[in-house]
């Protein structure tokens, strides 16, 4: 390793050549040595190189064959996946349509139920209002009757004396007795 680095270092110390040209000395250029080495390599390495190239060709062909098989399998799986996707999309559309139909049906049911409930509440409200009106009317009648009765009693007490009072009571008892006989 040291020799290699020394040779590179020594390159920097070469004197500059005066001109560019070709060296025609065959021995100094090692052209014969190179041609002999190349000839030996071609003669002996031809079979090895041919075997290496054949092996490489077989591996490439096997790789291509395997790739084609994998491609065919991938295409088949892709078609299956597409078929499943279409099926799932159809099911999703069907669920969506059914869901919308069910939502509309539930909405109509809810609207009808709410409408009936509101109608019942309106009827109860009206019944309650009528009941309260009747009760208020009855209370007013009762108060008017009580006030009229008080007024009549006051007038009777001030106008009637004992004798007239006893006669009126006897007459009323007689009328009640005759009513009792009629009902029996």
TrEMBL record:
The chain crosses the membrane at residues 31-49. InterPro entries: ATP_synth_b/b'su_bac/chlpt. Pfam families: ATP-synt_B (PF00430). The keyword 4Fe-4S does not apply. This is ATP synthase subunit b, chloroplastic. F-type ATPases have 2 components, F(1) - the catalytic core - and F(0) - the membrane proton channel. F(1) has five subunits: alpha(3), beta(3), gamma(1), delta(1), epsilon(1). F(0) has four main subunits: a(1), b(1), b'(1) and c(10-14). The alpha and beta chains form an alternating ring which encloses part of the gamma chain. F(1) is attached to F(0) by a central stalk formed by the gamma and epsilon chains, while a peripheral stalk is formed by the delta, b and b' chains. One of its GO terms (cellular component) is proton-transporting ATP synthase complex. It is a single-pass membrane protein. The gene is atpF. In plastids the F-type ATPase is also known as CF(1)CF(0). Residues 71-98 form a coiled coil. Belongs to the ATPase B chain family. It comes from Skytanthus acutus. It comes from the Eukaryota. It is found in: Membrane; Plastid, Chloroplast thylakoid membrane. One of its GO terms (molecular function) is proton-transporting ATP synthase activity, rotational mechanism. Keywords: ATP synthesis, CF(0), Chloroplast, Coiled coil, Hydrogen ion transport, Ion transport, Membrane, Plastid, Thylakoid, Transmembrane, Transmembrane helix, Transport. F(1)F(0) ATP synthase produces ATP from ADP in the presence of a proton or sodium gradient. F-type ATPases consist of two structural domains, F(1) containing the extramembraneous catalytic core and F(0) containing the membrane proton channel, linked together by a central stalk and a peripheral stalk. During catalysis, ATP synthesis in the catalytic domain of F(1) is coupled via a rotary mechanism of the central stalk subunits to proton translocation. HAMAP family: ATP_synth_b_bprime.
């Amino acid at each position: 390793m040291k020799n290699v680095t020394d040779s590179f270092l020594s390159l920097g110390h070469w004197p500059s050549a005066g001109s560019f040209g070709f060296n025609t000395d065959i021995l100094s250029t090692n052209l014969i040595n190179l041609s002999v080495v190349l000839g030996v390599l071609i003669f002996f390495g031809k079979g090895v190189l041919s075997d290496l190239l054949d092996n490489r060709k077989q591996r490439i062909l096997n790789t291509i064959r395997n790739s084609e098989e994998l491609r065919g399998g991938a295409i088949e799986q892709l078609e299956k996946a597409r078929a499943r996707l279409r099926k799932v999309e159809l099911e999703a559309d069907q669920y969506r349509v059914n869901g919308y139909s069910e939502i509309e049906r539930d909405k109509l049911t809810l609207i009808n139920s709410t409408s009936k409930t509101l109608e019942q509440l309106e009827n109860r409200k009206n019944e309650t209002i009528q009941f309260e009106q009747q009760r208020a009317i009855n209370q007013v009648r009762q108060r008017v009757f009580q006030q009229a009765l008080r007024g009549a009693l006051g007038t009777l007490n001030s106008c009637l004396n004992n004798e007239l009072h006893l006669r009126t009571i006897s007459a009323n008892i007689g009328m009640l007795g005759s009513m009792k006989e009629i009902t029996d």
